[in-house]
Structures are given as structure tokens and as C-alpha cells.
Amino acid sequence: LGFSNFTTEDYDYGYDAKMFETKTEDMFTMWKGHDMIAQAYPSIHPTNKIPLGLNVTGNHTYKIKATAFDNFKANQNVYLHDKLTNTYFDLRSKEAYGFTSERGRIEDRFEIVFKANQAKKDLEVIIDNTLIYYNTTSDKLFVKGLEANAEQLTVVNMLGQAVMTQKEVSKEALNQGIHISDLSTGVYIVQITTGDLQNIEKKIIID
Predict the structure, then answer these.
(1) What gap in Å lies between CA 79 and CA 69, rounded to an integer?
(2) Which bin fits 151, alpha (ψ -120 to 50), beta or left (φ > 0)?
(3) Residue 91 near residue 82, CB atoms below 8 Å
(4) How far apart are the C-alpha atoms of 102 and 105, rounded to whole Å?
(5) Taking the chain, what is the end-to-end CA distance rounded to the nearest angstrom?
């Protein structure tokens, strides 16, 4: 990735390069339907968002790390935004961001941003008082401790795909467990929006 005051968001010959073949495990930026191996942008603005695509081979733990920042200002923030978990990771920390993903192509989970609070959060996130777990014997998902009914419940896999969505689920039904079948082994995110405008997210592991 490069930034300057003479490159644009369109294709800049000599600065941008399309990727003609992706490997089974690969990372790339994306521009107008093309996978890019090199991409230049105009000068950095705090509202810029650069989408990242990945190919991954299985249900493993992966790491993303930035290794060099040439000619960047010392106070220029650069973050990796994991939209699935709403995590902002400082790419200038010299550490690696670890995540789990199922096999496949990921196009809408990661982006590079330059301001940690770009995502506007309209709903309060509450986790501490809610117990969420999946019982593999009964194939039921239990949500205990809700103070209001769920307007929507969504189960999302590590590719960011919704594998199940239910609307208008009572807190009593969730407390007793709702039946969910055909979930393969892996890590999922349960997202719940309640009637009193609370947003709850919890990771569950099915093995």
C-alpha cells in the first residue's frame, strides 16, 4: 500500500497492480472487483477505509502483522478493523493480530482504517450479565439473563456469513433453548438485538 498527493483512488499505472492469481492462503486489497497486489491511494485522510481480502484454507488461527512503515509520520495512526468482532488493532504496535476463520474467501471482514472510532455504535454492548452457550447434545442455543425479548438473533461464522437468523424471540424461549441444527464444528459469533435497544455479542465454540 502506498499514499501520495499525486496518486488517486482510480487505477494508477506504474503504482497499482492487479493480482492475476491468488493462492489458497493469501491476502490482498480490493478495487472495483479486482484483487490487488499493489495499490496506491491519495494522501491519508482519517476517514479512509481500505478493504482487505483473504483466502484461508481451514479452521485455524491466523495472524496479520504490518512489518514496515516507510516515510509515515510518527503520529500517523493505522489500525486493522475486524468488523466481525468490532476490534481495532494498532498495526504500528509491532505485534500481530490473531483471529480464527473457517475455510474460504473473506471479503467483508477486515479493513485498514486510520481512526479507531470510525464505526458508530448506536447500541450499547452488554455481555457480562448474559450467559450464551450451545449444547451439542440437544442442538440448542441457550441465552440466559436477558432482561428483554430479542428483536433479532443472528449466528455468524468466522467468514462473516449469517448461518441463522431469527426475529422476535422471547427471552423465555431463549432461556429454555432454541433448536439450531446443522452447525458444523467451529467458532461462531452470536449477535442479539433486544427490544430495549441493547446489542449483545458473544463467541461460542462448537466442537
Answers:
(1) 13
(2) alpha
(3) no
(4) 9
(5) 38
CA distance 110 to 156: 15
- Please indicate whether the domains covering 2-113 and 124-206 agree at the CATH topology level: yes
Cell numbers standing for residue 31: 478495487
Q: Is the dihedral of CA 96, 100, 101, 103 positive or negative?
A: positive
Largest CA distance in the chain: 61
User: Which fold is adopted by the domain 124-206?
Assistant: Immunoglobulin-like (2.60.40)
Cell of 200: 449483545
List, for residues 136-190, the tens digit of each pLDDT value: 788 888 888 888 899 999 998 877 788 889 999 999 999 999 988 777 878 888 8
Q: Is 2.30.30 the CATH number for 2-113? A: no
State the Cα–Cα distance between residues 145 and 133, nearest whole angstrom. 12
Q: Within a 10 A sphere around the Cβ of 139, how many other Cβ atoms?
A: 15
What distance in Å separates the CA atoms of residue 14 and residue 19, rounded to the nearest whole number?
14
Q: Where are the domains of the chain?
A: 2-113, 124-206
Q: Any idea of the CA torsion for 192, 195, 197, 203, to the nearest 10 degrees?
A: -10
Answer whether 0.85 is exceeded by the pTM: no
The pLDDT tens digits of the residues spanning 60-100 come to 778 899 999 998 888 899 999 988 877 888 999 888 888 87
- The cell for 85 is 468482532
